[in-house]
Amino acid sequence: MPESTMPPLLEFEGVSFAYPDGEPGLSACSLTISEGSRNALIGANGAGKTTLFLHANGLFRPQAGTVRYAGRPIEYSRAGLRRLRSDVGIVFQNPDQQLFSASVFEDVSFGPLNLGLDPESARERVEAALDAVRMSEFSGRLAHNLSFGQRKRICIAGVLAMRPRLLILDEPMAGLDHAMQKDLLSVLDDMHARGITLFLATHDIDFAYRWADRIHLMTAGRCAAAFDAEDLAENAGALESAGLPLPDVVGLYRRLVTDGVAAPGRVPRCVEEVLDLLTQRSIQ
Amino acid sequence: MLIDQCAYSNRWRAVTPAAKGIFALAGFVSAFAAGTPAAALCIALLMSATTIFGAGIPLARFVRAACVPFGFFLLGSVSLACSVEYHGGDFSIVWLPNGPAPVARVVARSCAALASLLFFALTTPMIDQIALFRRLKIPETLIEIMVLCYRMLFVFSATLRDVHTAQDARLGYATPKLALRSMGSMAAGLTVQIWRRAQALHLGAMSRNGEGPFRFLAPVFINSRRDVGFAIAAGALVLSLSCL
User: With an 8 Å Cβ cutoff, is A123 touching chain B?
Assistant: First the structure.
């Protein structure tokens, strides 16, 4: 989904922020998240990814610059923040940061009840959210008896139950094994299919290239570059300055083209697409 | 987490906490109302038997859970029965002037009260207890503290275990001196972690619009009325024992 076809949902314009101890967080950071898109934020540890996310949810207030949501600057009044947080959900990297209640069902109900819903509507939302993350059978369980990946899914359910338009996930794949990552990816795909805009932080350039519509590179508190994922191969310089390599699949495809095994054209996004290319070639 | 394991795996897990609360309260009131130590011991035996045979709590687990509080009031009763006095360079033991009867009454009543509390704690998970306290309109602040303490208990026990393992792997507990040092640094480290986690939880709550009191949906129990009816009848039986 190319950037230009979608209206902006979240915009950062020259946002700067430093922590009270002087540690820099964001430095004149500008980026745009378009409605209905899948976005990956890539950057080294300490690049400012989490600080940026905390600004998106109104948990931090910029010391300079503006954060806009749905075309309007964020209002930092109680009512304004309430509206923003009803629309922008955030899933933290560590699930223990987000789970208050020991009971899974109770914890997921925390957000919907804060929205002022009556118990019956809240109950329906909790059940739907647990179903969406495929954790319905765990609703009566205790959070501390679940695995790390399961706790992470409960956190996602807790935010989903608030029916956000934009879902932010801080390194959702960290600490998950391959099978859990695959499951989580399919949960994210379902959410995207339902029209939720997704914005996640990752260190994995291969995953970002395969999954995202748009990639944002973060270095030293600023968004150094942003481009459509399908144009990534043309942005090798920006990746290199952020200390990131090209995805393996791009290197493989280039080698296949050089050796004459594959024809030049659209760069594949994943190994499956390379295999498709090779199959087509062998049929020809 | 012995108590937690029992609370989640007993036969009466699905019984409404209100029914279990009524029965435990009846046992507790009977403990104080019991006219004789024998009546109080009968109540203690009945509550313990209900916990072990009714709710299916294994005897060994029941004894383990009872050991610490039982030891505590056994020690208390010794200090109640006698005291040590120092006169002119000599120590002497002074016994209670009224004889051992008051001590026997206190110990028997304490046993009954302990058995009643253990019945409730071992059969009712903390989340059900909290739901019950909410229905009883216990102040919200107290409930929030209970919710957070209970959740953090598990988070910190996991952190404590991780830090201890990391220290042990690098010979942190090889000698008593090293163990003392390791424990000190663990305590200091945990203090910082507590502060960080408190801050993190605050951000987590704010991100989900949680600015006021913590609100959660209460679990639903089927057959609540029937269970409460049984509990009232059983509670009346226990109360009648106190008149023996």
Answer: yes
Question: Measured between alpha carbons, how far is B45 from A284 in angstroms, rounded to an integer?
Answer: 86
Per-residue pLDDT of chain B (244 residues; tens, 9 = 90+): 788 888 888 899 889 999 999 999 999 999 999 888 899 999 999 999 999 999 999 999 999 999 999 898 888 888 888 888 888 778 888 887 777 888 888 889 999 999 999 999 999 988 888 888 988 999 988 988 888 888 778 778 878 888 888 888 888 888 899 999 999 998 888 888 878 877 888 888 888 888 777 778 877 888 889 999 999 999 999 898 877 6
Task: Provide the CA A236 distance to its chain's centre, in angstroms.
Answer: 22
State the DSSP H helix or E strand holding residue B207, giving kind and residue range, or none if neither. helix B176-207
End-to-end CA distance of chain A: 30
User: Where are chain A's structural domains?
Assistant: 3-245, 247-284
| A144 with B155: Cβ contact below 8 A | yes
Beta strands in chain A (DSSP E): 8-18, 24-34, 38-43, 64-69, 72-73, 88-91, 166-169, 197-202, 214-219, 222-228
By the 8 A CB rule, do A41 and A200 touch?
A: yes
ipTM, interface predicted TM-score of the complex? 0.79
* DSSP classification of residue A176: -
Cα dihedral angle (B230, B233, B234, B238), rounded to 10 degrees?
160
Of A4, A60, A66, A58, the C-alpha closest to A35 is: A4
Tokens 């923040």 -> residue:
A81
A3-245: which CATH architecture?
3-Layer(aba) Sandwich (3.40)
- Indicate yes or no: CB of A102 within 8 angstroms of CB of B151: yes
How many Å apart are CA B39 and CA B105, to the nearest integer?
A: 10
Q: Does B40 touch chain A (CB under 8 A)?
A: no
